[in-house]
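Each lists sequence, tokenised fold; shown next:
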Amino acid sequence: MNEDEDFRADQARLAKAEAEAEAKARAEAEAAQIWQEVDAAAADPAVQTEWIRQSNLAYGGLVAAGLVMVQPFLTETSLDPSAMVCVIAFAVSIPLLAALLVLNRQEEFRRQMTRSRVVGMAKAVAQGSAFVGITAGFWHMTMVAGIVFLAVGCVALGVHSSGFVQLEYDGRFRSRFRSGKPRS
């Protein structure tokens, strides 16, 4: 009896391991398929053009916000810590955002986006420092405004991500910019 129970337990463990391996293989195949569809959509010139337009809007808006936020500090002889963070953050972001705007014009002209890691890092630093600068600017006005901006900014990122996923992903990634029927 003991050998029979051991045999059944071994068979159950083997069946469980096989089922887990199959589930893992299916998940990996599905993930690979999704990445292929993402890559195909990202290579679509219409998608890239739209991403460039959206980037232009974001970069231009951040440059404008930075100029407005920094302007009051131009004539100040000394800055408190939040004002100093605001000014330094925009000193980092404004030139990078301006460079990205000019690069976007070249990308638009060439009808493709660059895949440079340096550009990717510049985008992250520029947008991140602009967010820090705006937060610090609001914090300088009142700590409550800084905290509210920080919190609502995080919520807004979630709102955008949720909307994007709903528009572009429904069990498979698809491009809404392609003409004709969506891929099956």
DSSP finds five helices and no strands in the chain. The longest helix spans residues 2-43. Helices lie at 2-43, 45-70, 81-110, 117-141, 143-168.
